[in-house]
Structures are given as C-alpha cells and as structure tokens.
Amino acid sequence: MFGLIGHSSSFAQAQEKARDLGLEEMAEADLLSWCSAPPQLLETFEVTSKTGATIQGTYIDSCFVPEMLSRFKTATRKVQNAMELAQKNGINVTALGGFTSIIFENYDLSKFQQIRNTTLEWERFTTGNTHTAWVICQQVETNAPLLGIDLSQAKVAVVGATGDIGSAVCRWLSQKTGVGELLLVARQQQRLTDLQESLGGGRILTLEEALPEADVVVWVASLPQTLTIDQGSLRKPCLMIDGGYPKNLDAKVAGEGVHVLKGGIVEFWQDISWQMMEVVEMENPKRQLFACFAEAMLLEFEGIHTNFSWGRNRISIANMELIGEASLRHGFRAIGLNQSPTSSGNPDLELAAA
Amino acid sequence: MATLEATDVPTAGASLPDFTCANYKDAYSRINAIVIEGEQEAHDNYISIGTLLPDQADELTKLARMEMKHMKGFTACANNLGVTADMAFAKEFFAPLHGNFQKALAEGKVPTCLLIQALLIEAFAISAYHIYIPVADPFARKITEGVVKDEYTHLNYGEVWLKANLDNCREELEEANRENLPLIRRMLDQVAGDAAVLHMDKEDLIEDFLIAYQEALTEIGFSTREIARMAAAALVG
User: Fold this and answer.
1) Are B235 and A81 an interchain contact pair (Cβ–Cβ within 8 Å)?
2) With an 8 Å Cβ cutoff, is B210 touching chain A?
3) B12 touches chain A (CB under 8 A)
4) Other beta carbons less than 10 A from residue A298's beta carbon
5) Which of A53, A270, B22, B140 lies 20 to 30 Å from B159 when distance is taken between CA atoms?
6) How far is B149 from chain A (nearest CA, A)?
C-alpha cells in the first residue's frame, strides 16, 4: 500500500471539498476551527501499471490549507498528524505532497520523531523530490526543442538552484543534458557558491540579471505574491517550467513568446479511479498528478520500501535515472506544452502546441 | 523550495510554566479538579455499565478500580503543588455529559453509555494527558505517564464491545455522537484559558482528542467517510 498526503490549495477550496463530501459542518466552520481538524483518510483506490501490476493506494488530507502557513504550530501539527495517520494505517511508502514536504523541511521536523505514542519511521515517507526533479528535467529536454531552443547553446536559469529539487535539476542539466550555460539563482550566497563548486560551473546571478539572459527558466522556488516580472525584458522564445508550489507563474508572465509549463506534473497511461486530484485543478484529474505523488506509486510498484527522497541535496543522478526508468516503465510521462493544465483559454500555448 | 516565515516559531524547546506562581495554581485548581472529577465519574460509570452487562461486571469493576487509583494520583498532584481542587467547578463542568450518561443508563442504552465513557471521555483524557505531560511538573508528569497507559486499556474495552455489536447499534452511536461530541467541544472551549496557563494549547487539545476519537471509531468499524462526518460535528460548538 502506498499513501499520498495532500491538502487543498486554499481555505475556500477546502470548504467546497468538504461540502462535496457531505461534511456540512466542516464546510461551515471557520479557519480557526479547521486549525483543529484532524487529518482524514479520504480515499483508497487501485492503480494498475502498464506492466499489469496492481497496487493499492490511500489519499490522506492533512486538513492543512495555505492560510495556516503563518502559524508554525498549526502547520507542524497538520504534517505530523497526517504522517502518523499514514503510519498507523500500515502504509509502506507515503509521499508528502504540496506544502507538506516544504513544512517538514523548513521547520526541520526530523527532530520530532515521537508523535504521542507513535515513533515515526522515516523510511515510510518520501518527499517525492527525486521523481519531481527528473520530470522537470524531462520537461526541459522535450519542450525546449519544440520552441526552437537548442539546449546545447541555451542559457538555462534555475531559480531556487540550491534547494533539494533545484540542485538535482542543476546536476542533471549540467551532467546529463549538457546545456549551454547554467544560471544559478537563489537567496543564500554561500549555498550558491558551494553548488557552483560541486557542479564545476554555472554562473551565479540575481533573478533580475538572470531572467533577460535565459532561454529556459526552471522555477523551483515558490514565488512571492509581490514578485513582478517585466515580460518585455524576457527572451523570445522563452520556456518557463513552473516547478514551484503553488503554481502561480502563468498569470504573471505567459504570452508573447513566453511559454509557461506546469513543472513536475505527470500523466498516467490510463484513468485512475480516484477523486482527489480534482481538488488540485488538474486538467485531466483522472490521469494527471504531481510527480512527487507518482514517486510513492513507483516505489510501491518497484517494492522499494525506503525513504527514497529524504533530506536536503541528496538526490543523485543514479537515483533520478532509476526512478525515471521506473516512471516510463509503469506508464507515466511528463506533461508537455501541448497538454499543460493551463492550456485552455491560453492562445499562446495552443499556438505552441500547433 | 519556499521559505516559510511563521510568526510563532519557538526559539527553544517547549518552555515550562512557573508551577509556583499564583496564576498557575489558580488555573491548576480547576484543571486538576476536572481530572479528579473525570476519574471519579469514570469509576462510577464503569460500575453502572456493569449493571447493564452483568456478565462483564468483573472486567468493568477492574477498570473502575484503575480509575480510582488515577483519582488518588491526581489528588496527590494537587497536594504536591499546595493547590485545593475546585470540585464545585468540576461537577458543573461535567454536568451536561453526566446528565446524558445517566439518561442513557436509565434507558438501558449500553452503546450510548460506552460512547460517552469509553470513547469520548477516554479519548479526551488520553489527548489531554499527552499534551500535559511535556509541560507538567516533575511529580505530576510521572503520575500522568502511568495513567495514560491505563486509559488506552479503557478505550480498548469500549472499542471491542462496540465492534462486536456494531451492526445492532450503528444508528444509536451516530445519534449519541451528534448529541455528545459538541458537548466535549464546549467543555474544551470552557477550559481553554486555564489550559493555556498550563501551556496546553486549545488547538492541540481539540485536534489530538479528535484523532484519538477517530482512531476509536476506525477500530469499531466505521468507514473513513462516516468517521469524517461524525468528527465534523465537533468543529461547530
């Protein structure tokens, strides 16, 4: 059995979902009440690989919503309690989706292994970041040429380069893809210098310096609401992979030769009989899902019951290759420009797909 | 990856309150009284349930005896801090739940009695004790750690009986849940201020209680959707 820990993308959406599930009291309750709502195991379902293997999965909603981010104790409790619920249900490997892994990492929750009478077993959990990083790299490699961008000559900016996914993407693009030049953008200078050293290359730039130079921009940092991007200063064409969470880049920059693709999203080869992906507004919720969730499925298919993606900056090329091969074998593929969940109503992307 | 900027990130581990200050003792006089009264009522309730289930009276008497032991332990905690428990407050605090239990008892409703005592009150106690232990004074901490292990046994007793009889009492349990779960929520709201003085957070108390209660409902055999629906009744006071 594999597990997915997810949450709604806003409080309003969580209330709507509660109403759909017939939980009227929760739909009516205010945010403060939701802060005390326990995690819910909402769904169990089967997934059948292209190889014919079938596994069982479970979706746990942590009852966290992004509006709780400013409340350290609440956010922490939601993550820990959802993980405890997963473990108590005997789930072999559970992916921490959305903000779950971000909260875990940022608040260093590995220091708190004891939850009431349960000792959390880390080997039962994965951030899913290895698969996410691999999928983002596939999205760069597949979609840049479609826009006429020659990756061997291209400048590829990675925004959030020193993060877990960002550093893995940098390693892959420099060692496997062989891009023209890597532009490294992140907030912490020391980490950037360390990364540059470990990569043996790449140029450290500020966001403002990097954007006008970049043919491809991989965003693996969440964007502040206040961020503004001068669309006119960007190169045309420019491929932007929005691999951050939440995905809010499209509204800021898409259009006029700037092509935004939702990063780290995969599509399964057949429908999955679940309802939960509808709440994250995938274009095809029966088949599309976050790559981090898919990693839990892949680990279960492959019988790899270990915390495959865990801690910071430990993602190896070898593990990316391993999970990537499994991903293709079991029937996942990274979504591309012609099937982005944002493509409806966006003439620019439809043009790109044509 | 996003960097999170919460406003209430603790700078160190959980800080302990000043157990000797008047404010602490005042709050403790009510919280401690609730615990003592809760254990006393638990004792009485298990004995009463034994009258409805004569073949299990021995087992229930054993559980009741454990509750009396707990009550004595918590009385010692108050003495240790030089606090007099406010028993009048505690009696009033439990009155609505006590009333519901007595009514169910008079009507011979075993499932309702067990839901109130063996599920709701035990889950309430387990969650509160778990949250209290890290911020308790050393004497009370040791006693509470011993008690919490016992309480799981009591929760388990209710689970086993209700699981075996679920087919015959599903509707009664759902109704009992609707009537009594909001009472627990109100009781938690009522002591939130005093609990905060003891460094016990209301949000933690409610969520941990609901987790323990949901686990019990899972064990009994309710589906995940049914459980979510039943627990939601606690979110509106």
Assistant:
1) no
2) yes
3) no
4) 30
5) B140
6) 10
Angle, CA A72 vertex, CA B192 and CA B124 arms, to 5°? 35
**Chain A residues in contact with B235 (beta carbon < 8 A):** 25-26, 29, 33-34, 36-37
Q: Which residues of B touch A34 (CB under 8 A)?
A: 235
pTM of the model: 0.89
With an 8 Å Cβ cutoff, is B180 touching chain A?
no
The one-letter amino acid code at B4 reads: L
- Chain A residues touching B236 at Cβ < 8 A: 25, 28-29, 33
How does pLDDT run along chain A (354 residues), one tens digit per residue? Answer: 999 999 998 999 999 989 988 888 889 999 999 999 999 998 899 999 999 999 999 999 999 999 999 999 999 999 999 999 999 999 999 999 989 999 998 899 999 999 988 999 999 999 999 999 999 999 999 999 999 999 999 999 999 999 999 999 999 999 999 999 999 999 999 999 999 999 999 999 999 999 999 999 999 987 777 788 888 899 999 999 999 877 778 777 878 899 999 999 999 999 998 877 666 678 888 999 999 999 999 999 999 999 999 988 899 999 999 999 999 999 999 999 875 444 333 333 333 322
Enumerate the β-bridge partners of residue A239. A216, A259
Q: How far is A18 from chain B (nearest CA, A)?
A: 10
How many residues comprise chain A?
A: 354
């349960």: which residue's tokens? A118
End-to-end CA separation in angstroms for chain A: 41
Q: Which of A34, A70, A221 sits opposite B2 (nearest CB)?
A: A221
Report how far residue A219's alpha carbon sits from residue A172's, in angstroms, rounded to the nearest whole number: 15
* Residues B61, B50: Cα–Cα separation, whole Å: 7
Return d(Cα B77, Cα A327) in angstroms, integer.
58
Residue of B8, B210, B225 with shortest CB distance to A71? B8
Find the DSSP H helices in A52-206.
72-88, 99-106, 129-146, 164-172, 189-199
Is the CB of B3 less than 8 angstroms away from the CB of A106?
Answer: yes
Average pLDDT, chain B: 91
Q: Which of B4, B200, B142 is nearest to A222 (CA)?
A: B4
Q: Tokens 């709780």 — which residue?
A: A68
Q: Measuring CA to CA, how many Å separate A89 from each of A37, A46, A309?
A: 19, 16, 21
| Residue A250 near residue A274, CB atoms below 8 Å | no
B36-43 average pLDDT score: 96
Q: Do A69 and B4 touch (CB under 8 A)?
A: yes
Q: How far apart are CA A78 and CA A7, in angstroms?
A: 10
How would you label B49-73 residue by residue, b for 16+ Cβ within 10 Å and e otherwise?
bbebeeebbeebeebbebbeebbeb
User: Hunting for tokens 């008047």 — which residue is that?
Assistant: B22
Q: Which residues of B touch A23 (CB under 8 A)?
A: 228-229, 232
**How many Cβ contacts (< 8 angstroms) between chains A and B?**
109
Q: Nearest CA to A129 among A94, A83, A164, A179?
A: A164
Closest by CA position to A309, among listed A140, A168, A161, A192: A168
